[in-house]
Design goal:
By secondary structure, this protein is an alpha+beta fold. Helices cover 25% and strands 7% of the residues.
């Protein structure tokens, strides 16, 4: 998937338009997507960096930045130790 693709959370497990899903273990993004034509669960298959598991679009989708509350909790824990 190109860096410009943005995937909505509700579409997270749909194949990316223009990218053919592949069997798990194949090269490409490993994000699980619904298979087509009864193929079951497949992997996204979009181009990814070699050291990454997911393409850029799915990496952005999978990362949730810490909330302010989580940051505050971490700072409190640091003061205690």
């Amino acid at each position: 998937a190109s860096p410009g693709i943005v995937i909505k959370r509700e579409d997270a497990f749909h194949p990316i338009p223009g990218v053919d899903p592949v069997a798990f273990g194949s090269a490409g993004c490993r994000w699980p997507v619904d298979g087509t034509n009864g193929q079951g669960l497949l992997a996204c298959g979009a181009t990814k960096e070699p050291e990454r598991s997911y393409c850029e679009a799915h990496r952005r989708l999978s990362y949730t930045p810490p909330t302010i509350r989580q940051h505050a909790g971490l700072r409190s824990a640091e003061r205690i130790s």
